[in-house]
Amino acid sequence: MIISKLLKLVTGKYRLITIRGESMCPTLNDGDIKWVDYSKNTLNDLKNGDIVLFKNPMGKNLIVKRIERHDQDKGYWMKGDNRFPLESSDSEMFGHIKLEHLKGKILY
Question: In Å, how far are 15, 46, 64, 66 from 77, measured between CA atoms?
Answer without folding.
Answer: 24, 12, 12, 8
